[in-house]
Design brief:
Blueprint: E1 3-7, H1 12-23, E2 27-32, E3 46-49, H2 55-64, E4 69-72, H3 79-84, H4 86-106, E5 111-117, H5 140-159, E6 162-168, E7 170-172, H6 190-198, E8 205-208, E9 220-225, H7 226-241, E10 247-251, E11 256-258, H8 259-270, E12 276-279, E13 288-289, H9 294-300, H10 309-322
Parallel strand pairs: 1-2, 1-4, 2-3, 4-5, 5-6, 6-10, 7-9, 8-12, 9-13
Antiparallel strand pairs: 9-11
Helix pairs in contact: 1-7, 2-4, 4-5, 6-8, 6-10, 8-10
């Protein structure tokens, strides 16, 4: 079986990918500096604590192991933070990823699965969004990812480095067995924040703007279960192993839900009233992001198992009820 280097594998999405890779019999090496990941989220594989931008360490990993494919999840991903601290995002998400690609090229590793984002589209003119739609990011986070997509195009042309870029929409939910889940510090994602209110860890959920150009005035997002996201990575990697060329795919449910709708569903799932508080808009937020995932469904046979938002929220609620403090103390570097 192939051996994967999963960069950022101790994070929310990366850890779910690692779990499925291991279940399917692959060899897994995880590189994570634990600045935003959790060691306890890893259910197996070889763990190396180190930084994405450490070229010498990357070369040591590649030269001492036969790595067949690299999966990259080690990005900072908070839109508001990227607006406040753009250079941090361009350093981690762009410059350090460039170091990773340099190390791959210098060591003859030429398969790459990239965790991209719907933020590269900016404020879309068409909904649902197609992979061929214009890419006009409106925040540094989206731009930091778009830069890498352009770099990957050049790496394919010049070095024959084959890549698949998976453009995520909103990852949500948790492992069905509740072994791993979503635990960020600080938490900024809507569903876990709503569930923290249900656990009485927060007094209310803040709604960032109720005057958006949407039916109920709140932002609309496309939610996709994290295990369905993880499975898409396995399908993408299998495509790479078959010697296919580079490609980009959207990963979404094709159905959007507003903030108010998610809160309403969470109230039903948890049985908690979940008080709300209306506050101002956040900079860098688009009104709606909903994807067409027709391409990956047709070409790779991707078939999400969790398309009902109530089921997605139910898996998240099961995780949070059983792990009210997440993974506990975050391991330090």
């Amino acid at each position: 079986m192939a051996t994967f280097l999963v960069v950022g594998g101790a994070g929310y999405i990366g850890s779910h990918v690692v779990k499925i890779l291991l279940e399917e019999g692959y060899e897994v090496v995880v590189l994570d500096n634990l600045s935003r990941g959790n060691r306890a989220a890893l259910l197996g594989g070889e763990f190396i604590q180190g930084d994405l931008g450490d070229y010498a360490l990357l070369c040591q990993i590649f030269s001492s192991r036969k790595i067949d494919c690299v999966m990259h999840f080690a990005a900072f991903c908070l839109v508001g933070e990227s607006v406040q601290h753009p250079l941090i995002y361009y350093n981690n998400n762009t410059a350090k990823t460039n170091k990773l690609l340099m190390a791959m090229k210098d060591n003859g590793v030429n398969r790459f699965i990239f965790s991209s984002t719907a933020a590269i589209y900016g404020e879309p003119k068409n909904v649902p969004i197609l992979e061929t739609d214009p890419m006009r990011p409106i925040n540094p986070y989206g731009r930091s990812k778009l830069f890498i997509e352009k770099i990957l195009e050049d790496c394919d042309t010049t070095y024959k480095l084959k890549y698949i870029s998976l453009r995520y929409f909103n990852a949500a939910g948790a492992d069905e067995e509740a072994k791993i889940g979503e635990d960020h510090s600080p938490e900024t994602h809507l569903i876990p924040l709503v569930l923290q209110v249900a656990l009485e860890q927060r007094d209310c959920i803040e709604i960032y703007g109720t005057d958006w150009d949407t039916p109920d005035g709140t932002c609309i997002r496309d939610y996709i279960h994290v295990s369905d996201l993880a499975k898409a990575h396995i399908l993408a990697a299998q495509r790479q192993m078959d010697g296919k060329g580079s490609e980009v795919y959207n990963l979404g449910s094709q159905t959007g839900y507003s903030v108010w709708e998610i809160i309403s569903i969470a109230r039903k799932v948890t049985g908690h009233p979940i008080p709300t508080k209306e506050v101002g808009r956040r900079p860098g937020d688009p009104a709606r992001l909903v994807a067409s995932s027709a391409k990956i469904r047709a070409e790779l046979g991707w078939a999400p198992r969790f398309e009902d938002p109530e089921k997605i929220i139910a898996t998240a609620w099961n995780w949070h009820k059983n792990h009210p403090n997440g993974y506990g103390r975050r391991e330090q570097k």
